[in-house]
Amino acid sequence: MESAPLPNADCLHCGVCCHSESHEYVWVTGYDWDLLGPDAERLAHFIGNRAFMKMSEGHCAALDIRRAADGGIEYFCTVYERRPTICHALGRGSPECLGELETKTAAVALSTQQKLAAGDKPAPPRM
User: Fold this and answer.
1) Residue 86 lies inside a defined structural domain of this protein
2) Could you tell me which of 11, 43, 56, 120 has the fewest CB atoms within 10 Å of its CB?
3) Is 57 part of any domain?
4) Is residue 24 part of a domain?
């Protein structure tokens, strides 16, 4: 298993903040919905009168988890330039980022490694 990402690790090699079992994890504003454009219906949904990014297999539906050219794991946001405001606000190395790392890194790394080793998309982590 790969070692846990460090707080100064490149976000492409971490992805922890994109993982959750909650379907109300990533709030999408009206502005965010407009930015998502034609991808909004595919990647976001309404729960009551509030919109959230859809979660798929324990992570944001916009996240693509794949093998990098160097054989490592890469967490690629497919809507990075159009990602929700809340994602913009979470700064790498911020207290919120460090909290995500502390509480979820091991579960995300284990789940990702197991699924990639099996040749499948990563399974939802148990957090």
Assistant:
1) yes
2) 120
3) yes
4) yes
Residue 124 resides in a domain: no
Q: Which candidate, 112, 111, 109, 100, places its Cα nearest to that of 4?
A: 109
CA separation (Å) from 47 to 18, 33, 36?
Answer: 19, 14, 18
Backbone dihedral angles phi then psi of residue 70, each to the nearest 5 degrees: -85, 5
- Convert the pLDDT of each residue in 37-71 to its tens digit: 999 999 999 999 999 999 998 999 999 998 888 88
Q: How many domains does the chain have?
A: 1
**Phi and psi dihedrals of 24, rounded to 5?**
-115, 35
Task: Report residue 123 as tokens.
Answer: 């399974």
Tens digits of residue pLDDT in 68-81: 888 888 999 999 99
Residues 6+ apart with CB under 8 A from 111: 58, 122, 123, 124, 125, 126
The pTM of this model reads: 0.80
